Amino acid sequence: MDDQKESLKKIITTLALKNEEIQNFICCLKQNLENLEANSNRVQEDLESEFSSLHAVLDELKEGMVTRIKQERASRTYELQSQLSACTKALESSEELLEFANQTLCSSETDNFTQAAKEIKDSVTMAPAFRLSLKAKASDSMNHMMVDFTQERNMLQAIKFLPVPATPEIHLEECQVFDNTVTVVWTLPEPDSKIDHYILEYRRTNHDGPPRAREDYPWMVVEGIKETEYTLTGLRFDTRYMTFRVKGCNKAVAGEFSEPVSLETHAFIFKLDAGSAHQNLKVEDLSVEWDSSGGKVAVQDIRKEKNRTSSPMHSPARTAMMSPKRAPSARVGRDRFTAESYIVLGDTMIDAGQYYWEVRFDKESKTFAAGVALRSLGRFDQLGKSNASWCIHLNNWLQQSLTAKHNNKARTLDCPIPDRIGIYCNYEEEPKISFIHSEQSSSSLLYQPLWCGMGVSQCRRAFRYPASC
Predict the structure, then answer these.
(1) DSSP code of 152?
(2) Segment holding 185, helix H or strand E
(3) Which residues pair with 359 in a beta bridge?
């Protein structure tokens, strides 16, 4: 009995849920019917408004053309009537002269005949009838005012509802990821002159391929794009990928979104590995300072970290470049730099690709160095004094100097002290390091070793501080 009751309760629960679903669906259908009625009335009103506007344009055009016909008729009527009046007067004068000549010819008086004949001859010579042009000054044809609306009629007959824009296709091979920008390129299956603009959506993700049901980041929207490509600037590449999709819009409706594509973003912000730091260095995520005498030293300012190549043939969208690897968040105590090696490493090892970052320092710093070190750098080694590290060293004691150091050899750089030092690390083709004088408006090369041999091992960003400041 209890089992039957329990079974019946389950059936009742199932039926109640199903009834609720049907009720909700009925509500949706009713709402759809109401929306359909409202939307139909709206588009019908819009259609009537468009046709009214078209009629208004035609009426205005008709009124203007009728006015031109009337003006042309009035002008020609005036010319012809003037000519008709002149001809009528000339004919009357000529008929009077003709009657006088006939009377003179029939006269029997010989004394006055000679004088009358001479007067008639002079009058004929000066008669208006002989000075008239017998060609009409205006034509009676109005054919030049005829119109042919065949082409326009065909265009009007071709009027139809706007089609839904076709779905664009993003061309992965033409998209580019470089610096802090991404350029997305797409096309339509067929040209569509009705397209008014495009809408591009993008979001960060750590997953390759199409968007997943649940993502950590929302879609960001860019509207009003007029061309079939768009460049996003000012981005921060703090995820492995960015997903993009685009759709076309005409005046009335938007099409479907394109198939989403994901572009790999190799650039990201690295931090400093406090576990590697000398005991006398105070390290935070992006800054380090001397912690014994209280002197201010340098603050790292990560400006850019990116793949530098901007050519589509070497775009990250096409290359299979390995992503940088995060090092463990802390090194064991025996790996911490010690003795005179006042160094802290970055928390990311570099073993492929091209990377760039910048270091900003306090100009009151007495001395500091920034550069790149191989993984083989020992815990007692000093930056730039072994064959496993390269750096730019600032000495600000008695006399200010800027030198490039490697393998315990120093090269003095004859240039102003920069506010920021950029470091460019390139693993592609011939591995090399470039130290750059970085300014907001421009940049110039400080120093570049001929060949640094970085390909034999992984590199890590390194900063060194002296024992006293």
Answers:
(1) H
(2) strand 181-187
(3) 300, 421
